[in-house]
Amino acid sequence: MIARFLLQNMDVRGYVFLGLVAAIAVLVPLSNLLLPIGSPFHVPTAAMSLWGKYLCYALLAVALDLVWGYCGILSLGHGAFFALGGYAMGMYLMRQIGSRGVYGNPILPDFMVFLNWQELPWYWYGFSSFPFALLMVLLAPGLLAFVFGWFAFRSRVTGVYLSIITQALTYALLLAFFRNDMGFGGNNGLTDFKDIVGLNVQAQTTRAALFSMTCVMLIAGFLIARGIVVSKLGKVVIAIRDAESRTRFLGYRVDRFKLFVFTMSACMAGVAGALYVPQVGIINPSEFAPANSIETVIWVAIGGRGTLVGAALGAIVVNWAKTIFTSGFMAPYWLFALGALFVFVTIFMPKGILGTAQALWSRRGRRAPVSPAAEPAPAE
Fold it and tell me: CA angle 339-345-348, nearest 5°?
């Protein structure tokens, strides 16, 4: 019944997206593990990890599209939820190092030994357990989003004012996590991971499993977001986006709907961050940088706001282009290229890549001439 609800009224692009991600989740790891290195179809481990990072960004973009594209909440702080989920996973990975660290301390991470910490902070307790870490991946960003949204939405803070406050939130966290006395590694962050659930995090099979898990979570995140959008709750959320005051006058508790969607989106962003860390190998305060959250907004705008599939597409395309641009002589000009792309899309393709393509296809269908055989016969 749940599957039927999630797949009801699914359009072609949704099925194509789900099928493509599912195929990638199977074929890419198999190509990496089974085919010889000399084969033209072999996917190197480095390339698989790189595209796994892109898929994490795609999940983050879907989370942002849920609140911005369908609820009208332009969040410039979703990078904070992404980073909190990453730190929760990073803390678990640090506890798995044990005595294999540089200083050989079985309890304290290396950066705490270097800073002369005498005991493990209380908020690190429990992170030696993987289920506890998974709970914190959801709870840390979800609780922050709930508390923030509770005050912001009940106070009816909307528009650019809400965007500025979310940006200030992530910047405050950036400054806090840079401090060594916070117990999160300071500006160096958390790195030098060894194991995840008892498996070598650098092993080829582990990398393949992480890639597949990222694909599975992207599919799950897409289905959850779409399930919200097509439900009765989603219709109210869209009404809030289009006419918040009118929706409130009809008797709906607008703040509760916005709080639910905002919290759910934050949890999805946290999951994306948790999958990002073991594949990249590091998490540091730079992930809280406001520029990262703004860049996420650009992904969604370029791919197509209010489409979910377009948001994921925009994240993958922009980050692939970023990799290409920043690996050669064009590296100093990447930000200029990104800004120019954003301006071009905003002016000439306001619906994004996917929205514009869909509009052109619909227009072509309407203009298609009707064949004589399809014309109705005249009435006698």
Answer: 130
Given a contact cutoff of 8 angstroms between Cβ atoms, the answer to whether 61 and 82 are in contact is no
Cα–Cα distance measured from residue 106 to residue 101, given in angstroms and rounded to the nearest whole number: 8
Identify which of 196, 252, 219, 201 has the alpha carbon closest to the alpha carbon of residue 18.
219
- Residue 128 phi/psi, 5-degree rounding, is -80, -10
Each residue's pLDDT tens digit, 44-58? 999 999 999 999 999
Is the distance from CB of 215 to CB of 25 less than 8 angstroms?
Answer: yes
Q: Which position has the token pair 């593990």?
A: 33
Largest CA distance in the chain: 98
Per domain, the residue ranges of the chain are: 6-325+342-358
pLDDT of residue 379: 46
Give the separation between CA 149 and CA 146, rounded to whole angstroms. Answer: 5
CA–CA gap between residue 90 and residue 84 (Å, rounded): 10
Per-residue model confidence (pLDDT) at position 367: 63
Residues 121-147, mean pLDDT to the nearest whole number = 95
pLDDT of 190: 94
DSSP state of 377: P
Positive or negative CA dihedral for 135, 141, 144, 150?
A: negative
For residue 181, how many C-alpha atoms fall within 13 Å in the half-sphere facing its CB? 0
Q: Catalogue the E-assigned strands of the chain.
A: 190-191, 195-196, 199-200, 282-283
Check if the beta carbon of residue 55 is closer than 8 Å to that of residue 280: no
- Burial bucket for residue 377 (CB in 10 Å: 0-12, 13-18, 19+): exposed
Chain centre to alpha carbon of residue 205: 24
